[in-house]
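Changelog entry

Holo records now carry the ligand SMILES as an explicit input line rather than a separate metadata file. Below, a converted record for 2-acetamido-2-deoxy-beta-D-glucopyranose, shown in the new format.
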Amino acid sequence: MEIQSSPKGFTKLKSSCHPTKLFVCISLLFITIVLFHLQVYSFYSPYSYSPTSASRNFLRKWRGINIVDVASDDRDHSKNTDANLTSKLRDSVTFLPLEDLRFAETAMVEHTWFMSSLNDTYGENEAEHLYFPSETSKGRHLCMKGSNRADGTKNSYALAWPESLPDSATLLKGLTFVSDTYYDYGNLWHGLTAMAPFVGWSIKNGWLRPNRWVLFHWGELRDKKGSWLQHLMQAGFGKVEVENFERGDGPYCFEKAVVMRHNEGRMGKARKLQVFDLLRCKARSFCGINPAGKAQEVNERGQPIIRLALLMRKGSRSCKNATAVIDIFAKECARVEGCVLKVVQSEDLSFCDQVRVMNETDIVASPHEAQLTNMLFMGRNSSVMEFFPKGWLELAGVGQYAHHWMADQSGMRHQGA
Ligand SMILES: *[C@@H]1O[C@H](CO)[C@@H](O)[C@H](O)[C@H]1NC(C)=O
Ligand SMILES: *[C@@H]1O[C@H](CO)[C@@H](O)[C@H](O)[C@H]1NC(C)=O
Ligand SMILES: *[C@@H]1O[C@H](CO)[C@@H](O)[C@H](O)[C@H]1NC(C)=O
Ligand SMILES: *[C@@H]1O[C@H](CO)[C@@H](O)[C@H](O)[C@H]1NC(C)=O
Ligand SMILES: *[C@@H]1O[C@H](CO)[C@@H](O)[C@H](O)[C@H]1NC(C)=O
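Structure line, unchanged by the conversion:
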């Protein structure tokens, strides 16, 4: 209060000065200038102390000097050294930009452009990752200022020892998953590949579950994942909050954190199969599907029923003439004994309806689309037919192989395009 009202007091003093009171005036002026200085200092200080914490520190320093003057006891002395050291450590915590533009050309290679000063930990068949606090971090916690949603270079990270966390830091208890993706969290396929390495990590570490998930894209905060990914996450881990750093501007430090910045990265094939098996199983149970399954159905002539689902979609990527496409599949299906065709508009379905439809499907046919990621919920060894309407293949680029990869990873048969 005193500090904030001082500039006003200054102008008032100037106008009411009398020569006889000159000494008092000069003294007051001096104090005012000192106080004003303190305020300016605290305003520009890199750790953005509030004026109150600056004055508190000022007082603490005063007391420190007094103690040294009065007591020369060794114990007090070493205590004081410790306190000085801790405060030095606290002050030396250095925040670096989350997105490092020097590595824009090699954004996804090795240490990537996300937290670029730190190298990954590699485990055989595991996705490369970072864990804090750990031996590699020398026992330091990961801290972040990460609330910027538009510019990853404005977000920052630092490492700090537990006894010298930066001033005004919030310690987030428990386990935090931190992911940075080059893609996004709304698209089913990209969302799944962002989540998979955490599932792999959890499987390896006694199924540890996170308290929260922090999502970044190019170092920019994302506070929403797509509804599909959100449901899959909930099916897998239970309710997991997406952290949005809204409890104030100060830095946040994580009690424990796992950072993934390569999506699946170097995760081995066996581990991927394990991850997808587990997610399939968790999603089915989340959606209340009977774990025993149904007996193989047969038609009236005793032939086993083969259920063919054709995934169609409205909107930009839909087929020019959907009726024509459906006709082709209906004709093909009619030629096979026991074949039953079901046409599904996947965007009309809830997460669990998608899981149910896929659970009742032996063969899925779909145009090249992220919706095909739903094949995750089919039984292993089911078949996938993917087709590319005219013009898409040229547009899809390397993305055209995504579902081949996925079918391979989740143990499906991909029946060409
Ligand atoms: C601790 O810091 C104070 C001032 O900040 C200094 O006067 C004192 O000598 C320091 N003590 C030790 C033991 O370094
Ligand atoms: C990261 O790895 C590179 C290349 O192996 C090495 O030069 C660098 O010192 C490592 N950095 C850290 C922080 O370990
Ligand atoms: C549907 O899910 C149940 C329960 O996991 C499973 O036993 C059954 O084989 C699944 N059906 C298909 C066609 O994948
Ligand atoms: C769509 O295809 C069907 C069957 O091939 C045909 O009868 C119909 O005229 C086509 N419609 C358009 C708008 O091309
Ligand atoms: C899938 O097929 C392979 C080879 O065709 C077979 O060895 C495996 O047991 C099958 N898996 C399941 C779950 O049916």
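Spot-checked after migration. Residues 1-17, 38-71, 391-398 have pLDDT under 50 and may be disordered. The pocket of 2-acetamido-2-deoxy-beta-D-glucopyranose (ligand 1) is lined by residues 61, 64-65, 68, 77, 80-81, 84 (CB under 6 Å).
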